């Protein structure tokens, strides 16, 4: 399949490389910034694999789009509508990669449009083992095509409508963005104490590993779920000089207490 990437950021880079490795031809990279850099990166990667003659063209203006089988709009959620308004490709397939943007934002760009949303935190410098993909389309034929493309680059593909995709988008913020902010504040706290967060990395990894085998509610540990008030007080004393951390500590402690009291009918 011939594919044009519209965008040159993290999502365009990671998905573009995967699509190329899967045997698709990246025809063009369209972006007002860094189009040439991504095109060069794709050409360099192609030379290492089975597409030594791959030569994606870098362009800045959507008016210069060539005919392709699929146009992948891989820009920020807030930019999808504006970018879509600059594309007119008749019957070609146009797909965006945004989690919080409805499918039909692309309806003026083409009669055939869809969504291929990577439910993963992507950075140009990294290559996750698995990128779950949520797909949708303007009709059953388009859904099948987008799903087929997705399956060439991921073993985890799920059809989702706008509402379902948004639920997962919210879930991604809750399990990734918010915890990472806690990691950041914990890192700063430990640095202030002359320590390193490196010692906590195995604990963080083990918590996630357990979720493959058990529901989250069954792997909760810590003083709040045990009802260890003495330890909680010691922690609170140490956090008195860190009001933001203390506020979160108390809030999470109270939430854990009340949740398990409701769930099991007893106070932990």
Automatic annotation (TrEMBL):
Residues 2-95 form the Pyrroline-5-carboxylate reductase catalytic N-terminal domain. Residues 131-255 form the DUF2520 domain. It holds the Pfam family F420_oxidored. Signal peptide: none annotated. PANTHER family: CONSERVED HYPOTHETICAL ALANINE AND LEUCINE RICH PROTEIN. This is Putative short-subunit dehydrogenase-like oxidoreductase (DUF2520 family). The lineage of its organism: Bacteria, Pseudomonadati, Bacteroidota, Chitinophagia, Chitinophagales.
């Amino acid at each position: 399949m011939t594919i044009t990437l519209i965008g040159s950021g993290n999502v365009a880079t990671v998905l573009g490389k995967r699509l190329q490795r899967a045997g698709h031809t990246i025809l063009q990279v369209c972006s007002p910034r860094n189009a040439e850099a991504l095109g060069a990166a794709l050409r360099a990667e192609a030379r290492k694999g089975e597409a030594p003659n791959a030569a994606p063209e870098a362009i800045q203006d959507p008016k210069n789009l060539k005919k392709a089988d699929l146009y992948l709009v891989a820009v920020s959620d807030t930019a999808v509508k504006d970018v879509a308004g600059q594309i007119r490709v008749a019957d070609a397939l146009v797909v965006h990669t945004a989690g919080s943007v409805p499918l039909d934002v692309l309806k003026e760009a083409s009669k055939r449009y869809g969504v291929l949303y990577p439910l993963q935190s992507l950075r140009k410098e990294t290559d996750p083992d698995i990128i779950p993909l949520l797909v949708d389309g303007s009709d059953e034929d388009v859904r099948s095509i987008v799903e087929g493309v997705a399956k060439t680059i991921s073993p985890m593909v799920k059809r989702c409508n706008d509402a379902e995709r948004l639920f997962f988008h919210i879930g991604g913020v809750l399990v990734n963005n918010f915890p990472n902010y806690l990691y950041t504040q914990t890192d700063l706290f430990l640095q202030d104490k002359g320590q390193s967060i490196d010692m906590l990395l195995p604990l963080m990894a083990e918590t996630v590993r357990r979720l493959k085998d058990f529901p989250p509610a069954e792997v909760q540990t810590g003083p709040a779920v045990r009802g260890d008030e003495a330890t909680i007080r010691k922690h609170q004393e140490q956090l008195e000089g860190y009001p933001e951390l203390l506020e979160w500590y108390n809030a999470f402690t109270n939430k854990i207490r009340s949740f398990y009291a409701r769930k099991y009918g007893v106070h932990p």
